Amino acid sequence: MDRGTGLALIMGGYGHPVTIDREGPVPIYQQVAAVLRVRIEAGEISPGRPVPSEASLMGEFEIARETARKAVRVLRDEGLVQIVQGRGAYVTQRG
Fold first, then answer.
1. Strands 88-91 and 7-11, how do they pair?
2. Per-residue three-class SS string for 7-36
3. Where do the domains of the chain lie, and which CATH numbers do they carry?
4. Are the C-beta atoms of residues 6 and 21 closer than 8 Å to each other?
5. Model's pTM, two decimal places?
6. Angle at 86 between CA 84 and CA 92, to 5 degrees
């Protein structure tokens, strides 16, 4: 976390830094969902493969479990992932 700006710099896929703005108007869960959406659309997370677990998202983005859940729910509502109870969230097949 950059204490001067309140931004968390996270290393995204392919070494690109991802910035989470903790003090801005966009809720953190929507920012995390946007990062995951980009990874899915770029093919970094392939159809049929799991998205990072809640615990992984919590560690990577320094967020609470409920924030991680809300981010994945956004992707579910968009049809990008499906939730498999007891297994996690998986990227849906695109057709």
1. unpaired
2. EEEEECHHHCEEEEECCCCCCHHHHHHHHH
3. 7-91 (1.10.10.10)
4. yes
5. 0.82
6. 20
The span from the CA of 48 to the CA of 93, in Å, is 7
The helix or strand, by DSSP H or E, that contains position 76, with its residue range, turns out to be: helix 65-77
Q: Taken in order 10, 14, 15, 16, is the CA torsion positive or negative? A: negative
Q: How many alpha carbons lie under 13 Å from residue 79 in its C-beta half-sphere?
A: 3
Per-residue pLDDT of 29-88, as tens digits, reads 999 999 999 999 999 999 999 999 999 999 999 999 999 999 999 999 999 999 999 999
In the numeric block, which tokens belong to residue 16?
């690109």
The two counts, helices (H) then strands (E), for the chain are 3, 4
**CA gyration radius, the chain:** 13
CB contact at 8 A, 84 and 48 = no
